[in-house]
Specification:
Length: about 100
C-alpha cells in the first residue's frame, strides 16, 4: 500500500529545500506542472505570469516511492495562484475537447 503524504513530509521537504536554496526562495512559491501537460501551456504560463521554470525532484508514491524530476514554475504567490487557475481551466478545456 502506498504511503500517504503527511504534513510532516511537507515540512521536511521544505526544510531540505530551504537548506539547499537558502534565503533565495523566501516569499516564492512553486507550481508543480503535472507530467503530460502540453508544452505550449508551460510556455504560456512562463510568459504570461512571469514565472521561472525549474526542475525539482519530488517523491512520487505510486506503487513504490520513486523520486522523479518534474517541472515547477516559481514566482510570487499571486502570480502562482493565477497561473494555477489558468492551468486548471486550460487542462479542463483540453480534456473536454477530445
Amino acid at each position: 500500500m502506498a504511503k500517504k503524504l503527511t504534513l510532516e513530509d511537507l515540512k521536511l521537504s521544505k526544510e531540505k529545500m530551504e537548506d539547499e536554496m537558502g534565503a533565495e526562495i523566501e516569499g516564492l512559491y512553486d507550481l508543480v506542472i503535472p507530467p503530460g501537460t502540453p508544452s505550449y501551456l508551460v510556455y504560456d504560463l512562463v510568459e504570461e505570469f512571469d514565472l521561472e521554470p525549474l526542475e525539482r525532484k519530488i517523491g512520487v508514491n505510486i506503487v513504490e516511492c520513486d523520486e522523479r524530476e518534474v517541472i515547477v514554475l516559481r514566482g510570487e504567490l499571486e502570480a502562482v495562484q493565477a497561473a494555477e487557475q489558468y492551468l486548471y481551466d486550460e487542462l479542463k478545456a483540453y480534456v473536454g475537447s477530445e
